[in-house]
Design a protein that fits this description.
Helix content: 40-55%
Order of helices and strands: HHHHHEEHEHEEHEEEEEHEHHH
Strand order of the largest sheet: 1-4-5-11-10-7-6
Number of strands: 11
Bound molecules: phenylalanine
Largest sheet: 7 strands, mixed
Distance between the termini: 92 Å
Number of helices: 12
Structural class: alpha+beta
Oligomer: single chain
Strand content: 15-25%
Radius of gyration: 45 Å
Length: 348
């Protein structure tokens, strides 16, 4: 019987050694000391022994039981230690690793350009005018001397607002001229910068684009004023003091005479050639870039807002902002402005 107890001890110690979870330790305890366990099994035969033997074997059995109980407590502790050790391995933090820099964005190239344009005109005494992007037909066309059925409406590929009679997405910033004049008495110096919309889309056109509009009305305003403001603006914005402007006759119903404004190419400085006789592709070697529409405000437009067209004259101009930015930074596709690809945006 002593031998059996010894064997039980060896067996249980071996089982504890390979127990890798609290659950298995418990199972081992049940296997040996449970009610139906191996220990009790042995104990059942105790009654067959002599008193003398009972005493020695009983003593041994008690000691062994105590020993094994503390062995299994020890195993629980070992497991706990191992667990803590692996947490330290898995979850350690290297406090010397440099921190991650949060990425800081910046303003979009177009927004920055718009601010520059506004600041430049502010220096010349122009204020910033405002008007809605969803505009009444009346302001977008009628008040600008473009009555219904006038062929000039066809020049604008208009987005009409469905179910909202007589509203359009403004096709140009010129209606801001009207809004501003309605609220102001001459002298007027106003610009407008904002979104405009046309059903148009290719490498140099987008259904949404930005325009700059300018208007100056006072006594004795002439084409000379228009030319000087335009020339100064182009020289400043393209950072090239050699820029010249030229006017070609054109037609817009709200100005008379109307014209297209060209400036000398800021890339080749009007020569049509780059260093080493390389042909300038931007201006197609002609040295000039068509850049704006302009003219002297039509007397009818002045009368429409209640100005005395005998007393006051004025000039107006309008141009696409994306086109200017494309020229200045040699960007070859309009879509790049609006795709929000960081590889593009971060270049500026
Ligand atoms: N509004 C015109 C356009 O979008 C441009 C323009 C503005 C022309 C002012 C003359 C005067 O085409």
């Amino acid at each position: 019987m002593q031998e059996k107890i010894q064997k039980l001890k060896v067996g249980m110690l071996a089982d504890l050694k390979v127990a890798l979870s609290e659950q298995t330790i418990k199972e081992v305890e049940v296997k040996y000391f449970g009610r139906q366990g191996l220990f009790n099994e042995i104990m059942k035969t105790l009654k067959d022994l002599s008193d003398e033997e009972k005493r020695t074997v009983g003593k041994l059995a008690n000691e062994t039981k105590k020993e094994l109980e503390s062995a299994s407590q020890k195993r629980y502790q070992e497991l706990e230690h191992e667990k803590l050790g692996s947490i330290a391995d898995d979850e350690w933090i290297d406090v010397t690793v440099p921190g991650k820099k949060p990425t800081v964005g910046h303003r979009h190239l177009l927004s920055k350009f718009i601010d520059d344009v506004e600041a430049l005109f502010a220096k010349m005494g122009f204020v910033l005018g405002e008007g809605p992007e969803v505009e009444k037909e009346f302001y977008n066309f009628d008040q600008l001397n473009i009555p219904e059925d006038h062929p000039a409406r066809d020049m604008h590929d208009t987005f009409w607002i469905k179910n909202l009679e007589k509203y359009v997405l403004r096709t140009h910033t010129s209606p801001v001229q009207i809004h501003h004049m309605e609220k102001t008495e001459p002298p007027v110096r106003v610009i407008s910068l904002g979104k405009t919309f046309r059903k148009d889309s290719d490498a140099t056109h987008s259904p949404m684009f930005h325009q700059l509009e300018g208007l100056m009305v006072d006594e004795n305003i002439s084409m000379a004023n228009l030319k000087s403001v335009m020339t100064h603006f182009f020289q400043q914005i393209f950072e090239d003091p050699t820029i010249k402007t030229r006017f070609r006759i054109s037609y817009f119903p709200f100005v008379e005479p109307g014209m297209e404004v060209d400036c000398t190419c800021p890339i080749c400085h009007g020569s049509g050639k780059l260093p080493d006789n390389v042909p300038c592709r931007l201006c197609k070697q002609c040295g000039w870039l068509e850049i704006a529409g302009a003219g002297m405000v039509h007397p009818q437009v002045l009368e429409n807002v209640g100005y005395d067209s005998e007393k006051y004259t004025g000039f107006a101009f309008g141009m696409g902002l994306e086109r200017m930015v494309m020229i200045k930074y040699r960007i070859n596709h309009m879509r790049l402005f609006f795709e929000n690809d960081l590889r593009f945006i971060n270049q500026f």
